[in-house]
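ingest -> validate -> predict -> emit
validate: passed (alphabet ok, no gaps, 176 aa)
predict: started
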Amino acid sequence: MREANARIEQLQERDARLRAQIARAPLVARQLQVAQQRLASQPGFLPETSVELATAGLVQRLEAVVQQASPGNRSCAIQNRSPVPDAGRERYPRVVVQVRMQCGTPELAMVLHALEAGTPRLFVDNLNVLAQRFNFGAVEPGSGTGQGTGLDVSFDLVGYLRPSAEPVPAGGPDAP
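emit:
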């Protein structure tokens, strides 16, 4: 009889805990909605949900900015772009694309400004600029050679993803 009473008391306590949690559900839902709105209003994070999608988004943005700075890749062209694997588990997952390109000085300035000034926030890291002479392809009328002084540029293009919410494990602290 004592075992049955103890079991009934245990189940009543569990029922009370679960009813309290259910009663708090609307408050928790409102708090979640406020937190999500606050995160959405922060333009610093990449909109994608995974590192792979964010990497593709970074590459597309880079290509669009270079195309805008140098239509037809006349004086600025991407030579190589490759994703860098994430080094570890951080609160804000870091997305990195290693870039190598050849540009003229004004085009490089336009590209770097467009990348770092836009939203979401992107960062240019490990910037290396080397002056060299190379052919942009098109021969300017009257110049004869088509040779120009350009820049060999390499850098890491970095963006950050929103932190992912860690799911509460099944069988949490209030589970039987």
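Residues 2-40 form the longest helix (39 residues).
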